Structure formats: structure tokens, C-alpha cells
Amino acid sequence: PSVQHKGSDIPRYVRVNTLKTTVEDVIDYLKREGYSYHGTDLCSVSGKVFMRDLHFRDILVFSAKMDFHDHFLYKAGHIILQDKASCLPAYLLDPPVGGHVIDACAAPGNKTSHLAAIMKNKGKLFAFDLDAKRLSTMSTLLLRAGVTCHRLANEDFLKVDPLSPAYKDVKHILLDPSCSGSGMVCLHDGSSEEQEQEPERLKALATFQLRCLNHALKFPKLQRLVYSTCSIHPQENEEVVSLCLEKNPDFRLIHLLPEWPERGQDPLTECLRASTTKTFTHGFFVAMLVRQATPNTESS
Ligand code: SAM
């Protein structure tokens, strides 16, 4: 793995919650509070200077020291404090307004609220998580964010029946399963113990991730799936995706965002990676799988 920056080197990203406000209104509000807005001109953000992200129009970029946890816009759910890399999955999945979508491992729900914003709160957003405590945090977050199209379930995604009538119209799935978190730079003290990331633990995580991915591809109407982790380990990323594709020849990878500066490791260059050094974010991985042919409905 490449050299890890400290979390304090990464800018602070803010996603504007378009269910509650607009980017323009947030910019105006902050300007009235004495912040200085630099559009998308490349500038070094410091103090109260901020800019718009170059890739995503709903993301604003601030200096690393900025903390919005006590800010009105955050408490009112107008802004979501979410790293830019972790905004990739929902942006790329891009579910349609009114669609039926599954967020398989959803808590605490930042990606769920992002999906809901893209869906304009219309349709059905089924969100699962095993951890009841994380789900209760998620409920609070979704309420604050004004999300209403979701159905939360404290369920093991691996036990959700893909053939249940409830999911017959699900065409989009976001799968962001538990991972080693090795891309989350602020959580790391760089100790050799952490660097090693015990091989057994990684193996167990990769097995779980592959099971989730194979399971997700069983939903009969699925057209598009985004798989993401905040891990920098190929075992949890490219290797999981390669093994899944071997088993599921109906699906193929989509070449994501040609303008993005960091690709998945060879030969999975269709996928994206993110890092402190190349994308100025936490370490992250994203793959998008699509079904090659329309499902055979003749037998049903
Ligand atoms: N997508 C979330 C977000 O953006 O806020 C973060 C998800 S976190 C990386 C992984 C989540 O998967 C955890 O909340 C964990 O409780 C949940 N999880 C682990 N095993 C699961 C399973 N078998 N079924 C459903 N959720 C599971």
C-alpha cells in the first residue's frame, strides 16, 4: 500500500442535501456568514475559503480544519458530512426517480440518504443492516435529512429472499459491506500491527463480501450494482469482484468515470480507486456491474 497521509491532510467535503436545499442556497448562506467562495477555480482551501468540487456539483470543499458538526446547516440536515470518495457509489449507481433500489448494508446511512436525494424521495429504497444500534442512528440521520422513500429492516442481507415479490422490481443495488476500513486514514495510527491487517481477518471479510455480492446478483430484475469498500486491500476489492464475475458470466464491469484520476488495479481498470495522494480523499474502491442480457422471463 502507498504511503498514508494523516486524516488532517484531506480537505473537508460537504455534500449538499438536495432533498432540503440547493447548492446555491448553501453557498449564499455561507457567504453571508463570512465564508469566501471560489467556484471551481483551483485554489488552496484554507480558513473560511471554500470551493465547489471539480467532479460533483453537490459537493463543496473546505479546509481540513473546518468542523460543521455544530453548524445550523448540518443540524437541519441541509448538508451531510461525507467524504467525496464515499459519494461515488450513489452518484454512479444513479437510480431513477421512482425506482426500486436496495441498499444492502446501509447503516449509518449516508449513502442511503444520497440515493434518496437522487431518487427525489420517490420510489422504494429498501435498506438493510444487521446492527440494530447503527440502524437507530441511521433513523435519526434519515429523519434529519428529510428522507421518506426508505424501508429500513434490521435484517441479514444474506437472508433476504431475492425471489420475494417485495423485491420483484428492484433493478439497482448498492452494496457497501463491512470491510477492514484500511482506507480510513484518520482511524489509523500506522502501527505495524495495523499495517499487517491480520491475513485471517482479511480472508474472512473477503469471503463475506463475495457472498454478499453473489447474493445481490440473484435479484431477478437487477440491472446495475455498485460494490464499494473503504479498504485499500486488493483482497477485498479487485479480487472479490474478479471471483464474482467468474461465477456470474451474465454480468460485466462498466468503465467508470474516464476523468477520475485513479483506476482499479490491473486488469480491473474499469473500477475506481481513491486515495489521499491521487484524489485527496480517504482510500476507497468502487466497481459497477451490469447485467449483459435482459433476464429470461419466458420460463416464468
Ligand atoms: N453504507 C453505509 C453508509 O454509507 O453509511 C456504511 C456501511 S458499513 C461499511 C457496513 C455495514 O454493514 C455495517 O453497518 C454493518 O452493520 C452492516 N452489515 C454487516 N453484515 C451485514 C449483513 N450480513 N447484512 C446486512 N448488513 C450487514
UniProtKB/TrEMBL annotation:
Q: Where does S-adenosyl-L-methionine bind?
A: 105-111, 129, 156, 176
Which GO biological process entries does UniProt record here? rRNA base methylation
Keyword Plastid annotated? no
Q: Name one GO cellular component term.
A: nucleolus
Source species, domain of life: Eukaryota
* GO MF annotation: an example: RNA methyltransferase activity
**Which UniProt key words apply to this protein?**
Methyltransferase, RNA-binding, S-adenosyl-L-methionine, Transferase
Query: Where do the SAM-dependent MTase RsmB/NOP-type domain residues begin and end?
Result: 2-292
| Family recorded in the similarity comment | Belongs to the class I-like SAM-binding methyltransferase superfamily. RsmB/NOP family.
Name it.
SAM-dependent MTase RsmB/NOP-type domain-containing protein
- The species is Tachysurus vachellii
